[in-house]
């Protein structure tokens, strides 16, 4: 399967920077007029499917080895240190393929043995580049011996290390990421991804109420241009959903486990049982996944989610009986006392 250029322009070739968004152009990720003062360009690989693509789009056989190389170019007047990482492509909480570093990324892979970081060496390295010069950085890759259909998706991520942090303020940290797409079996892949919803749960954190849908794509097939339709409603009351939203242009990385976050915004969340009604559609293939997954919000969670809203408590019927009897006894006593005083 050949990955589309539009996907890479939106996800793989994203230049990540705090308060800065840079553009990946042709074969070089250039930081112009941003203060980054460095750039990265990919070097041609003999296994590249299309030499005109600005990312690594490779066809490898089982156990085949190759070297992926990039030039890290320091345009500044000072010597700079850079960290170069081989990252696994993961699916983030917004349902977007993400090439950024994640803590414990291997735990987010269904099969960590075929993750890009697992087949790359070194997976992380530091390089020092003199002022107004460049250094070639090489990552050795060996395709897994296991036979499988589909794609290994990863990225080479370059981060400039900061010599000092700005106190009481923000410091720009500039990064570049370029995608690595490794196709197996001539690029052929299974036609239908194995997408599953494992669980839905409610989470409230500092008045940020949300429903978490835990999903996984067990196949080695990525999905792009997806559409999601989400409804959340109280069990037995589907006509009045708390959430009714649609999102386009979503994407899912292969071989990944991920939490899809659905914000509840200002919706009032009382204790009780709810239903997550989630539909994911691939308009290109016509494939549709649809789940209705129950979850529960406890009384404690409800109070935490809505501290200004009193939780309605149901009073048992027997308590009402006791209250009426007590009221009758009080009235009877008052009548007797009144009559006694009158007869004196």
Task: Describe the overall structure.
- This protein is mainly β and about 350 residues long.
- The chain folds into three domains: about 5-185, Immunoglobulins (Immunoglobulin-like); about 195-305, Immunoglobulins (Immunoglobulin-like, Sandwich), CATH 2.60.40.10; about 315-344.
- About 10% of the residues lie in helices and about 45% in strands.
- The protein has three helices and 22 strands.
- It has helices at about 5-10, 300-305, 315-344; strands spanning about 15, 20, 25, 30, 40, 55-60, 65-75, 80-90, 90, 95-100, 120, 125-130, 135-140, 150-160, 175-185, 195-205, 210-215, 225-235, 245-250, 255-265, 270-280, 285-295.
- The strands form six sheets. It has a six-stranded antiparallel beta sheet, with no helix packed on it. Strands 6-15-14-8-12 form a five-stranded mixed beta sheet, with no helix packed on it.
- The longest helix has 27 residues, at about 315-344.
- It starts with a helix and ends with a helix.
- Residues about 5-35 and about 310 have low confidence and may be disordered.
């Amino acid at each position: 399967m050949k990955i589309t250029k539009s996907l890479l322009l939106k996800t793989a070739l994203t230049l990540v920077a705090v308060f800065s968004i840079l553009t990946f152009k042709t074969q070089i990720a250039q930081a112009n007029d941003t203060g980054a003062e460095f750039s990265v360009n990919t070097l041609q690989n003999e296994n590249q499917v299309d030499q005109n693509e600005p990312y690594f789009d490779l066809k490898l056989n089982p156990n085949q080895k190759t070297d992926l190389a990039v030039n890290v170019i320091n345009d500044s007047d000072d010597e700079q240190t850079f960290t170069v990482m081989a990252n696994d492509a993961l699916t983030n909480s917004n349902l977007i393929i993400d090439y950024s570093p994640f803590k414990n990324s291997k735990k987010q892979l269904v099969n960590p043995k075929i993750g890009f970081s697992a087949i790359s060496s070194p997976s992380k390295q530091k390089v020092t580049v003199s002022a107004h010069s460049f250094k070639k950085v090489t990552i050795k890759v060996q395709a897994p011996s296991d036979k499988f259909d589909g794609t290994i998706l990863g990225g080479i991520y370059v981060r400039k290390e900061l010599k000092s942090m700005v106190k009481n303020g923000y410091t720009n940290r500039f990064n570049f990421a370029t995608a690595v797409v490794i196709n197996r079996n001539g690029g052929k892949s299974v036609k239908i991804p194995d997408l599953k919803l494992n669980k839905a749960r409610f989470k409230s954190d500092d008045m940020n109420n949300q429903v978490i849908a835990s999903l996984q794509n067990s196949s080695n097939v990525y999905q792009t241009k997806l559409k999601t339709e989400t409804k959340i409603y109280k069990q037995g009351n589907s006509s009045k959903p708390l959430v009714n939203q649609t999102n386009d242009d979503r994407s899912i990385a292969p071989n990944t486990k991920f939490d899809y976050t659905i914000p509840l915004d200002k919706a009032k969340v009382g204790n009780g049982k709810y239903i997550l009604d989630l539909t994911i559609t691939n308009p290109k293939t016509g494939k549709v996944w649809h789940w209705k997954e129950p979850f529960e919000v406890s009384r404690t969670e409800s109070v935490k989610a809505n501290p200004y809203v009193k939780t309605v408590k149901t009073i048992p019927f027997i308590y009402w009986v006791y209250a009426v009897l007590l009221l009758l006894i009080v009235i009877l006593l008052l009548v007797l006392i009144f009559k006694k005083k009158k007869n004196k």
